[in-house]
Design a protein that fits this description.
Elements: H1 12-16, E1 22-27, E2 39-40, E3 43-55, E4 63-73, E5 79-83, E6 86-90, E7 94-103, E8 109-118, E9 123-131, E10 138-150, E11 154-155, E12 168-169, E13 171-184, E14 189-203, H2 213-216, E15 225-238, E16 249-259, E17 268-281, E18 288-303, E19 312-313, E20 327-328, E21 331-348, E22 351-367, E23 379-390, E24 394-403, E25 406-412
Antiparallel strand pairs: 1-3, 2-3, 3-4, 4-5, 4-6, 5-7, 6-7, 7-8, 8-9, 9-10, 10-13, 11-12, 13-14, 14-15, 15-16, 16-17, 17-18, 18-21, 19-20, 21-22, 22-23, 23-24, 24-25
């Protein structure tokens, strides 16, 4: 879920009420096959977490709503299914009705369905499937289909010194299809090919309290419609114990991608990137884990490339003290460090959840050319994450970041790295 700046730390309620869960049994017909849940004598066991949604942000408007989350174990007592519908009212975009289904048939396969529609502009429809390779000479594959309409994007200009006072607003509609195929040469070394087709449309519809992007930055809004067809090759060396909820090991990832007008894209660019993630446990039960991440993304060539395809810094996956896409330029580096402390464990119908707190530190910058990189003007932020995980796949989180421009909060079902 996208970040929401906030004035009050009311999102803390999301995790606090998680302790007030309710376990029950429901008729098996409520969750029909082939959904991966345990069925015993025509009944299904489930745990309900009733979560409120409360957020406040001056420009995007206040959110008030309800997010009930049902968790279902599968036959081996691991996490099998999550159902998470919600109803959330936003002052600027109306009422949002959403349905989320996340399924985990086994430790290698996962898929999800998301349907979200507001009475205003915002909407999201998504299907995701992933089958991970587990041994040498094995294949992995997956796909993503997504439609997203977003009334809340911001643009501040290019560069590491873009001014917060130049904040503008626009509306984006994106249609995306992505597929990947990977081959594991050894248990640690994988080569992966990915194809991504994205169609994006921008409009001048903007938040009433912010100026339109076209007014302050007319050049970036000249290309209102853009098709991007991207081809990526990635080499991964991975020693982590778990891919989604890692507690030890290392990931080193190197990738290169290209988009060309000759291959069906409206813009041409070449990009390379590196990602390093490391996880060091400090006790036998892995209740105390230090996690680090170093990432770099470099745009080598670009022609008529829209700003939303440029490297960027800010948001849940790069710098949690700033909003999404806060800083944009041709190159980006980011570093993150966090200490994860497991506070306690809970068991519902044999499914074990790990509840943790994680103070973190994020730092990075964007810059125009490699030759102009230096360690001055790094954008630093710190904060605290509150998380609940069910290994090996699921993480629910609320994260509070604090940077030089204020505060940001992020919530969703993932680790930042």
């Amino acid at each position: 879920m996208a970040h929401r700046d906030f004035g009050l730390l009311l999102y803390l309620i999301l995790l606090m009420l998680g302790f007030s869960s309710c376990s029950m049994k429901v008729p098996a017909a409520v969750v029909p096959p082939p959904l991966p849940v345990q069925r015993t004598d025509g009944k299904i066991e489930t745990t309900l977490f009733p979560l409120p949604v409360i957020a406040t942000e001056p420009d995007s408007g206040n959110d008030y709503g309800f997010l009930p989350v049902w968790i279902f174990p599968r036959d081996d007592q691991a996490m099998g299914l999550i159902l998470a519908p919600s109803v959330i009212y936003n002052e600027k975009d109306g009422t949002v009705f959403a349905f989320r289904l996340l399924a985990y048939p086994n430790s290698e396969v996962q898929y999800r369905l998301i349907a979200s529609q507001s009475t205003g502009t915002n909407a999201e429809y998504e299907f995701f499937y992933d089958n991970q390779s587990v041994g040498a000479k094995d294949w992995s594959y997956g796909c993503l289909l997504n439609y997203n309409s977003d009334y809340f994007p911001r643009f501040y200009g290019f560069g590491n010194h873009s001014n917060e006072a130049d904040e503008t607003s626009y509306t984006s509609r994106t249609r995306e299809a992505l597929g990947h195929l990977g081959y594991l040469f050894t248990e640690r070394l994988e080569l992966r090919w990915q194809e991504r087709l994205t169609m994006t449309t921008l409009s001048d519809k903007h938040l009433p309290t912010l100026p339109p992007t076209r007014g302050l930055f007319p050049e970036v809004m000249q290309q209102r419609r853009n098709i991007t067809f991207v081809h990526r090759l990635t080499l991964n060396y991975d020693t982590r114990d778990l891919k989604d909820t890692s507690t030890c090991g290392l990931l080193a990832s190197f990738y290169g991608e290209t988009a060309a007008k000759a291959l069906g894209s409206d813009a041409s660019f070449d990009r390379v990137g590196i990602i390093f993630k490391g996880f060091q446990p400090w006790d036998a039960d892995r209740r105390f884990v230090t996690a680090v991440r170093l990432e770099g993304e470099f745009l080598l060539r670009q022609k008529d490339t829209p700003f939303y395809e440029w490297p960027h810094l800010g948001g849940f996956f790069s710098n949690r003290g700033y909003g999404e896409w806060r800083f944009i330029d041709r190159n980006m580096v980011a570093f993150s460090l966090e200490q994860r402390f497991e506070v306690f464990r809970l068991s519902h119908f044999g499914v074990i959840s790990h509840w943790e707190a994680a103070p973190f530190f994020d730092m990075g910058k964007v810059f125009p050319t490699i030759g102009k990189f230096n360690f001055r003007s790094l954008k630093a932020s710190g904060g605290l994450a509150l998380r609940a995980s069910v290994r090996p796949q699921v993480v629910g989180h609320v994260e509070f970041g604090f940077g030089e421009e204020g505060s940001a909060v992020f919530m969703g079902l993932d680790y930042p790295f």
